Structures are given as C-alpha cells and as structure tokens.
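step=encode ok
step=design start
structure_in=
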C-alpha cells in the first residue's frame, strides 16, 4: 500500500542523534504523538492505516533511535532510558504544550505502548524536580507489549507456536507452490514479509496489505536487556494514584501477547479496556472500525 507524503518532515536537532519525524493532519487539530513498536523498528509500518487519525488530529510520529531513518553508527547500547530521554526532548522541540489541558495524547503501539508507560512513570517521578517532564493529557495503549518479563516469555512461546503451526505452514506452502517468486519477485517479497508476521493475526490469512518493516536486532536486544527482570505493575499503580491520567487500552482477544498482561495494566492504571473480538496484535488492519470507534469516543477531535 502506498503511504502518502507527509505535510511536514525533518530531523530533530535537540537529541544526541538526529531522529526522523513526520507530521500530518491539520495544525490546529488536537495533537497526537505516536510511538511505533519494535523496539528497533520504524514508524511507517503503522501507515497508511493509522494516518486516519490525521483526518482530525495533528499527528506526529518519529523513528525511534536506532531504527528506520534514525539509525546510528554509535556503538553505545540504546536502552529504554535512551528512548524516554529522546521522547522528552522531542516533546519540547515540537513545541507541544506542557500544561495538562492542552498537552498531546500519547499513543503507543506494541513496544511503543510500553515506552509510553515507561515515559509516564518517569514523568510522574520527575514532578518534584526543577525541570519536570511533561505529562500527556491522555494515554492510548494499542496492543501493548507485555508489562513483565514473565508475560514476555509467555508471549514469545505463544508466537513461536503460531509461526510453526499448521495455518502458517499451509500459507507458506501455498506461496512456494504459486510460482510467484519467478513470476513477480516484488510481489513474492511482499508476501514473504506478510507471512513472516502472520502469527500475530487472529487469522493468518488476514496478513495482507502490510507496509514492510525491518527491526535493527542489536537495538531490539539492548533495549530488552536494559529492562532486566521488569514488572511495571507497582509503578503503574503509583502513577495512577499520583496523576489523574485518562487511559484507553485496546487489546485483540487473539493477540499472542497475553491478555492477562494488558488486563493487569488496565487495572493498575484504572483504564478503559477494550477487548477486540476476532483480532490479534494488529487491530488497525484486522478490526479498524472497532479500533477507530473506540479511539474517537476517548479522544476529542
């Protein structure tokens, strides 16, 4: 699928490494700051579908450090704290409001949802300092990555089982038998990518019309390593007690990420939790109308 050009784009000047960003939608629209998944990936695999948010919102997305157009040759390990610090600097570089009433909605998908939670935890901790980090007006967590190491391990096992299961193996066999590799190499590469992520879908056959992406392996590994044996439940409860932050959580009922992880995050944050039927990890492809309806009810235009 073709991704339309942005209304504006560029590279950050206040971060240690220049980070690519793009902006879409009306300048006077309610601002949204979008965090992609990975880690180590890039923003554009969420498009063109999530560009629907730009119909009524000022939508800003960027490639997190180490991925996409924000790759770096610096061998210093990139950690979750690196990503939180980058987000803080970008917030101010984009001149986004820091008053809660006018601050943007922070929208995170998959790993980006976990990054959004980590950011808000650190922002709350900084509230008593001389230069507190800005807090979003609302938080939207789409298909959030597991909030503990134990749930991440459970997710990895579930995904591996799906990827080696009969449904995905059948689709791979059909691709090999199709002759597409010789007939149309470009289409073959596209379909090969789609099948490489088919285990994330409630029905692997729905893994179609996806924007391909790559993950920088060393960045992904260094960020997960930096989290150690993490469990965010206590920190999320502390955040919810300290800050009246409206939160929407969306999770597909057939997501390989454990539903229990998302439910625990929603309870800790006192959030609205929408469990989407017949949907895996990619609601913007699998159940877009249910996703956008839930977001429209939660975030004013």
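sequence_out=
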């Amino acid at each position: 699928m073709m991704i339309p050009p942005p209304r504006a784009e560029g590279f950050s000047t206040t971060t240690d490494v220049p980070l690519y960003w793009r902006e879409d939608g009306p300048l006077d629209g309610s601002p949204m700051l979008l965090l992609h998944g990975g880690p180590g990936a890039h923003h554009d695999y969420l498009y063109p579908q999530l560009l629907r948010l730009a119909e009524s919102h000022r939508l800003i997305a960027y490639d997190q450090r180490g991925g996409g157009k924000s790759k770096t040759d610096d061998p210093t390990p990139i950690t979750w704290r690196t990503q939180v610090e980058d987000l803080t600097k970008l917030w101010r570089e984009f001149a986004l409001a820091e008053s809660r009433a006018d601050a943007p909605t922070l929208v995170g998908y998959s790993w980006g949802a976990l990054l959004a939670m980590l950011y808000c935890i650190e922002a709350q901790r900084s509230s008593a300092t001389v230069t507190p980090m800005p807090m979003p007006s609302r938080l939207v967590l789409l298909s959030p990555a597991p909030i503990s190491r134990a749930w991440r391990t459970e997710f990895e096992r579930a995904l591996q089982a799906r990827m080696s299961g009969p449904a995905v193996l059948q689709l791979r066999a059909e691709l090999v038998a199709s002759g597409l590799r010789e007939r149309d190499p470009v289409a073959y590469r596209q379909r090969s990518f789609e099948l490489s992520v088919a285990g994330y879908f409630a029905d692997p056959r729905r893994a179609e019309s996806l924007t391909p992406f790559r993950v920088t392996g060393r960045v992904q590994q260094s960020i997960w390593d930096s989290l150690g044996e993490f469990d965010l439940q206590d920190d999320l409860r502390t955040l919810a007690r300290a800050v009246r932050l409206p939160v929407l959580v969306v999770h597909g009922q057939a997501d390989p990420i454990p539903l229990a992880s998302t439910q625990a995050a929603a309870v800790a944050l006192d959030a609205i939790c929408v469990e989407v039927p017949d949907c895996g990890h990619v609601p913007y492809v699998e159940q877009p109308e249910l996703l956008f309806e839930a977001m429209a009810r939660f975030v004013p235009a």
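step=design ok
step=annotate ok -> The longest strand covers residues 30-35.
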